[in-house]
Amino acid sequence: MAHKIYFRCSTEGQDFIQQQKCVTDYLGRLGIVADDTITEKVSGTISHKERKLSDLLASCQAGDVVYVSELSRLGRCMADLFAIVTEATDKGIKLVQCKDG
Question: Do the beta carbons of residue 56 and residue 66 sit within 8 Å?
């Protein structure tokens, strides 16, 4: 089982500091060390198929876990968010939103 982190900001002027703190604190409480971290600066309105998120999901195997600070980092559009969750579920990938513990 691999533990992977996904960080996304919408613009070049934004940073990942809050997301990193949220996920790092969450994983620290559980004693988990991530195997991989993917970062990208792209609008959440862009389909996940056109983002690094698609490559991340493709690289995952059943049992892997992908951590995000909150679901809005995966996407803003409900249809795309549904597609992402469906793709992950179909592959046996667990998505964890760390913000709410």
Answer: yes
